[in-house]
Design brief:
Order of helices and strands: EHEHHEHEHEEEEEHHHHHHHH
Strand content: 5-15%
Largest sheet: 6 strands, parallel
Mean pLDDT: 96
Helix content: 40-55%
Radius of gyration: 20 Å
Oligomer: single chain
Structural class: alpha/beta
Distance between the termini: 37 Å
Length: about 375
């Protein structure tokens, strides 16, 4: 086993009512003036005002950038950065799901390092830590609140840039399930399947280690047990809290073992057609794992067992098939579209999408490396 390094924010708050503690912690860190990065929806329903009030109670001033797109763009980073500089902010608070977190990380990284966000595409390209980021999560899925991954759409090139950099790790992550209670069914399902994808890709990754394995398997168990309940009844706080823990565990796994072709391919669909990331992952997940079965059948059998499938007496290949069946069943039960055709994806774009997917840093740790033709074949199978 190769040597491994484990990355995680230094403080992580999880559980009902932890939002208030977060504001106190920010004051203890000596932060005075925050840029809150969020989206129009969360601003509209008053969640932003709630956070601003908690900050104000700790004498922390704040201004708001709520222009984040569902797939945050280079332009979003520029706009947020201009606001941060105008108000002389000393930290960034991201409020939302993966989109505001990624946008906030991009803003904080460029604020500290200069240049443009595209200068940092790839692995560890920055020279110094970003401005402090406090990530307050409202979805249970992306785990962006605790990772060193930042995904930004380059509008000029129609691709999603993967920025993997220890310097974009937030200093504090906050997962208060009360903030997740209002999440609509579709978003609960998509973000939950994103978390399952993180767990599975990290577990079969060529960079997996015993710590990431333990996190990934526990995440898969909790998602299999709680995602349906969280989707069916958004006010079920036990299911919401279980999903908050599960997505965090999955984040710990992939933040350190990285990912695979599901993400490398989903990023291209998101960048090209502006599609929701979690849905793209959910549709691609069984097809990529079918491809991975040739080298990772035993590992996929472990995932099947973690998801509650009885694998006693099954061969590795049968166990892998059972895993893929369990993934498909869960996706179906929570209302994920059956294939890419439902998402208006076009077959004539597959060659370009496959070329870009093979350049995505997430694919480098897939357990088996694919040819261009094989990636195109997986896209076709997912139609």
């Amino acid at each position: 086993m190769a040597a491994s390094t484990f990355f995680i924010p230094s403080v992580n708050m999880i559980g009902s009512g932890c939002l208030e503690d977060a504001a106190k912690t920010m004051k203890e860190h000596g932060l005075h003036n925050a840029l809150i990065v969020t989206d129009k929806v969360l601003n509209g329903i008053g969640v932003v005002a709630q956070v601003q009030a908690l900050l104000a109670a700790q004498d922390i001033e704040s201004c708001v950038y709520d222009g984040t797109h569902p797939n945050p763009t280079t332009e979003n980073v520029k706009q947020g950065l201009a606001l941060l500089r105008e108000h002389h902010c000393d930290c960034v608070v991201s409020l939302g799901g993966g989109s505001p977190h990624d946008c906030a990380k991009g803003i904080a990284l460029v604020a500290a390092n200069g240049g443009e966000i595209k200068d940092y595409e790839g692995v560890d390209r920055s020279a110094k830590p970003q401005l402090p980021v406090v990530a307050i999560n409202t979805t249970a899925g992306t785990a962006s609140e605790m990772t060193r991954f930042c995904i930004i759409t380059d509008e000029a090139r129609h691709i999603k840039m993967a920025i993997v950099d220890k310097h974009v790790t937030p200093i504090l992550s906050v997962n208060d399930p009360h903030l997740m209670a209002g999440m609509p069914k579709g978003l609960t399902a998509a973000t939950g399947m994103d978390a399952l994808t993180h767990a599975i890709e990290a577990y079969v990754s060529s960079a997996a280690n015993p710590i990431t394995d333990a996190c990934a398997l526990k995440a898969a168990t909790m998602i299999a047990e709680s995602l349906r309940d969280a989707v069916n009844d958004g006010q079920n706080m036990q299911a919401r809290e279980n999903m908050a823990y599960a997505q965090f565990l999955a984040g710990m796994a992939f933040n350190n073992a990285s990912l695979g072709y599901v993400h490398a391919m989903a990023h291209q669909l998101g960048g090209f057609y502006n599609l929701p990331h979690g849905v793209c992952n959910a549709v691609l997940l069984p097809h990529v794992q079918e491809f991975n079965t040739q080298v990772a059948a035993g590992r996929l059998k472990d995932i099947a067992a973690a998801m509650g499938v009885n694998v006693a007496g099954l061969s590795d290949e049968q166990g892998a098939a059972a895993c893929i069946a369990a993934i498909r069943q869960l996706a179906k039960d929570v209302g994920i579209p059956a294939g890419l055709r439902d998402l208006q994806v076009k077959e004539e774009d597959f060659a370009t999408l496959a070329t870009n997917a093979l350049n995505d840093a997430c694919g480098f740790t897939n357990p088996i490396q694919a040819s261009h033709e094989q990636i195109v074949a997986i896209f076709k199978a997912a139609m």
